[in-house]
Design goal:
binds S-adenosyl-L-homocysteine, binds iron/sulfur cluster, DNA polymerase, domain 1, about 375 residues
Length: about 375
Amino acid sequence: MQNLLDFDAEGLTAWFAAQGEKPFRARQVLRWMHHFGQSDFDAMTDIAKSLREKLKANAVVLPPAIVSDKLSDDGTRKFLFDVGNGNAVETVFIPEDDRGTLCISTQAGCALDCAFCSTGKQGFNRNLAVSEIIGQLWQANRALGVDPRNPEKAERIISNVVLMGMGEPLANFEAAVAALKLMLDDNAYGLSRRRVTVSTSGLVPAMDRLRDECPVALAVSLHAPNDKLRDDLVPINQKYPIAELMAACQRYLEKAPRDFVTFEYVMLDGVNDSDVHARELLAITRDVPCKFNLIPFNPFPGSPFRRSKAERIRRFADILIQAGVVTTTRKTRGDDIDAACGQLAGQVQDKTKRSERRTIPLQEMRP
Ligand code: SAH
Ligand code: SF4
């Protein structure tokens, strides 16, 4: 049985062609599945009965199942999805006055092992399939009460998608890009490139590929203003140091839908939050049109770090702002249900022994 949620438009058209079916049929089915959230072929009323029978015999529309659904006091909602073999991933919906953002996972765990990240500490099991990535959006739409007959209203509920949940999206390049293409496709979710963001810890070659294959808004997890500190906090920096990362950001902006890169910077008390660090940051990012998003560290059990004090974060932001760089501080949302940035843990059957993880050949993570 073929899961049709594993295809983007191009893949679905090819699969239909192999069944002897015309491209416009693929488009119709794509629209039913994603635009209207339909998984029952019999409900696809404008599809000929013979084709419906053929689809029923050969295909399914199967998103991952929601195994838990928690609502925070602040309206943030966290879904846990079963992705099989004891693995589960998390998706977070963050409602705001002017938009609703869905934060999606791309891997069961993460192999990159950033020092301050709960997902990293869980280890890594595997890449998610396209159906498991886009299936999070498919299911969230449904759970949030999106009326399939009123898709315009749906777009107002989930107006933005960020690949910022569990995992490194660019280490699961093919599947992440297929899911991104569905998000942008007018027959699927119809989101504009500016409203879809990929967050990466800095896989330089994959950033170039994303620019060429599917440029969406880009967020880069910087977290340190020099290689010495970044090597420790974000170990992938040992492979792609800051100068190479900044050059990749500049190249990305040639095709990006927004004219800036967002640098994410987690505020760790006494580690990366001094005035000197702020000035160093301004120096290394001088040639990259950018905004800063400061993220107060969200603690998780067993983590050695503390969140910078509010006053320290304010002072750090002021230095950036006074230098003319737009800087926002992320509001912590959903921490009462462990849904805040960096707290997503899901359930990961770690395949990489923690102690050996830093020695995984980095080539394996490159697309
Ligand atoms: N792997 C990608 C996307 C997922 S992580 C990346 O690293 O960009 C999403 C964001 O949450 C990243 O900026 C990450 O550095 C940040 N983050 C991780 N752990 C955190 C924590 N404990 N508190 C606050 N932010 C955290
Ligand atoms: Fe992976 Fe991102 Fe967490 Fe680093 S911060 S371990 S890249 S999910």
